[in-house]
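I am writing to request your help with a piece of structural work I have in hand. Thank you for your consideration; the sequence and its tokens are set out here:
=====
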Amino acid sequence: MAVVLTALLAGCAGPGGSPATPVAPSPGAAIDRQGGHVPEFALRAYASFTRADAVAIASREWRLFGQPVDDDPPDTRPPLPPELKPERMAGLWERVGEYWWISQEPDRSEGSWTGKHDAAGSEFSANEDYNYAWSAAFVSYVMRIAGAGPRFPYSPSHYTYINLAREMSLNQTTGWAIVAERIDTYAPRPGDIICATRDGTRRVRFDDLPTRRAFPAHCAIVVAASGGEISIIGGNVDDAVTLTHVPTTPDGRLALAGDVPVDTRYPWFVVLRVLYDN
């Protein structure tokens, strides 16, 4: 993909490149309305939390960004010049700001970021956008607007909900609406989330979860599944909301026996099965 992986797959780096340290809300806790971050329809969940809604919301955002598709291996396209980066374009940098504002808890400074501004409202250089990676904010935004309420650990960092999903599957507890599944045993369905570790760093495997330390990752939402392929939509891919096709086994799994993905481009290592109402 065109985004350099330090930006595309990080999704959890704060200014200066250091990992953010998100604090997830307790499962079942009420959403804080301070600052009016959450629309009333999502706050009180006017409708059920459904796969169809999550897919529709992710697809809507993809259309907003011009329906880009990128199936290239990492780093095979030259980076876009600053003036052509969608996340910095008029009408779209504000949209990225909405992802941050709506998805994050009110006490997080990242909630004030946009596609090109820091928490103080100062424009940062396009060459520093890896410090403001928004792929986790996008996933959190979709879950929030779809009506997950307090059941999803909204975060600027993918590893937060990856680790919590694994704790759910290990302890067989309730509260969070995500459960970690192995890529060689579970076929992701539309509305589920698949995650890869960042290339060039120590690979995190399913059996390493939950980890003690933060790790850079990238997650995207499955929007379609058919024999031998799924379609995923992720944020901050080519500085946009972008669709990617991911090869699978004939029955839809990301790997055969073992944890080596069918897709040779990215180190997918976990599926987050989302516990929708229907």
The first strand starts at residue 178 and ends at 181.
